[in-house]
Amino acid sequence: MADVTLDFPKLMNEAFYPSLHWKGRYLVEHGGAGSGKSHFIAEMCLLRIITELHHNIAVFRKVAKTLRKSCFKLISDKIHDWGLISLFKILKSDMTITYLPNGNELWFIGMDDQEKLKSIERVTSAWMEEASEFNREDFEQIDLRLRG
After folding, report:
1. Degrees (nearest 5) of the Cα angle 112, 144, 115?
2. What is the pLDDT of residue 74?
């Protein structure tokens, strides 16, 4: 793995520090608009794919079209802001981000096409952005993919 020297706690909102050590299956972040939930989850996803091995993180939104300007842009911007662009392959066309030193990936998937979910394998973590937009069936389909 490449030697990435970042002081992650200084880059993250301290209100969410306890979540960094969460070991349960589900983590639900609470807070109002602008509280930093999405920023923290994006940072946590990057931290995991940089510092741990064998991760494929799927980022879900109810409608695929909204991913490009929200989660995908947020994570891409963080990679640039942290000065790590040379360590990542960012494919805008299929909205995937790969950390080159270890091959870990982030996949951005809309729940508006359930057929695409059937081919997803080896997901180790999932981020459901705007979880209130999802229904129980969506959650169950995502949960089924978390076998990694």
Report:
1. 30
2. 94
The pLDDT of residue 2: 46
Q: Is the pTM of this model over 0.85?
A: no
Distances from the Cα of 28 to the Cα of 38, 102, 107, 128, 131, angstroms: 11, 28, 20, 10, 9
How far, in Å, CA of 65 to CA of 117, rounded? Answer: 16
C-alpha 5/C-alpha 82 separation (Å) is 10
Residues 82 and 6 sit within 8 Å (Cβ to Cβ): yes
Average pLDDT (1-12) is 55
User: What is the per-residue burial (b if ≥16 Cβ within 10 Å, else e) of 53-64?
Assistant: eebbbbbbbbeb
Q: Just list the catalytic residues.
A: 130
Decide if 147 contacts 123 (C-beta within 8 A): yes
Q: How confident is the model at residue 53 (pLDDT cuts 50, 70, 90)?
A: very high
Look at residues 94, 85, 104, 34 and name the one whose alpha carbon lies nearest to residue 67: 94
* Residue that has been written with the tokens 């705007």 in this structure: 130
Crossing angle of helices 37-51 and 71-81, in 10° steps, is 60
